[in-house]
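User: Predict the complex.
Assistant: Input components as received:
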Amino acid sequence: MSDRYISIEGISRSYPAPGGGSTTVFEDLWLSMARGEFVAVIGHSGCGKTTVLNILAGLDAPSSGVVIVDVKAIEGPSLDRAVIFQSHALMPWKSALGNVAYAVASKWPRRSRGEIEGKARQAIELVGLGPAADRKPAQLSGGMKQRVGIARALSIDPKILLMDEPFSALDALTRGTLQDEVRKICIETGQTVFMITHDVDEAIYLADKIVLMTNGPGARIAEIVVNPLPQGRTRNDVHRHPAYYPLRNHIIDFLVSRSKAFDSEIAGKSWDPRHPPHVNPAQPERSPLHPVRMPQASESEASSRDFPEAQRRTAL
Amino acid sequence: MTWSSDVRAYLVSALILVTFLLAWHLAVTGGGGGQKMDPEYAKLMGLSATQGKSAMPGPLDVGATLWGHIKDPFYVRGTNDVGLGLQLGHSILRVMAGYLLAMAVAIPLGFLIGMSPLMSRALDPFIQVLKPISPLAWMPLALYTIKDSSTSAIFVIFICSVWPMLINTAFGVANVRKEWLNVARTLEVGTFRKAFTVILPAAAPTIVTGMRISIGIAWLVIVAAEMLVGGTGIGYFVWNEWNNLSITNVITAILVIGLVGMILDQILAALGRFVTFPE
């Protein structure tokens, strides 16, 4: 089932509240991703998107529900899922190459030193940092540090790349360049990517699907926006595409008003958290509440209605 | 003409030194002739009273004595007449023994405390009570149980240098940045490898700071400890020369203690620079 390469199945996460009881950041969250898909999650701070990423990374565990990656429920961190941290998280006592080599040596501990370094150097060169490979992070600019972070994540050939606002700490020019490079690398390698962002344009440029999350606590996945822009889009022409403004406006409308009042928007209507509507804002005649279901989604819907995904997998 | 700030600082230092030495020299040369006194009484009082010279040695006396010690630091002319170099050697060896023992205990234990919140809380009351005890208060107990004065001095060094290293190691280990630990977790790095490749380098500057505090305390304490246990060492030398009323030797020893302490501190400072990483 390639469209369920990653399957988030009914996860919730709650924290003990200061005055007793607990705060639920989100509950009954369902999301699936196909292999090679680039999914961006967008939502306001506090909606739990970083928590979702941490759960996918295995750094955090859901209070209930499971996440299945490549037909295996995840139990803790794995070298199959590489994380690009917001704050780059490089170890300052190691050189750029050393940081990448550390990841390579963790993935393939039996390889010789030369093999490890070769693989690390290859990743460093992929992000265009060849000449600066031996510099310490303190001698690198913010953009270069994040490149090392990207190289480190890519060097271990992960099944999934998890990116937590990877470009948010960078200046606009550097951010643009890095977005271009990440897009190029992800398309070339067919990388499956789960990215968290605050930046609407970043989501539109990079992602195949944009997941809109409502405000927490009790956040939900409101919609999955299918990016109508062509695969071959470039930074310079993306805003000239006729679908660009409907898409952008749709997302901004959501962030500005609908994300707060989503519960009243769906009040009285049947709401299935397992199948948040897939929306294509380029076809404005359809209201978001009667959305176009993507063909794959409706196919899988029929089979998964009787057998919840998790049960079906164990049965197989 | 402008001098660099370094040169100016050196010049001021030199000026302070010269002023101090000059004042010292003038203060001890004294004025006036010897007092008139009964010759028998004069014999008892010695040269200082009869010739109006101060009993306090001047910088020239100390310089001459120091030069004598530097020329011949390692002689042994009986138990109470051993070269300054040998005495220092004894003290340094004791400090090293106690200090290395303290490192061997404090750093692994500090790792344990830093990595395990349970152990941290369980051991905290013991550390809080044991830390403020003056190391010399352990001396009688050490002498009674160990029954060897030299080993007791080593124990006292151990007990005084263990705390700063332990506390700093635990603090450094517990405060390793979460993001580095998360990197290690996502890379599925095992506990042992993580301790050596992430926590140790990240905590090293804090650990070395603790080691530097410890070596300072150890060098302070060894002098006092050796005054108590006697036999050998720079502390014993000071006490012995006080009994000999050789203030010149006492001042020389004070100077040497300061210099050795500075060298020990600088060695640890260099180690600190070596393990510190710029961010």
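The CA atoms of residues 113 and 120 of chain B lie 4 Å apart.
Let me know if you want any component modeled separately.
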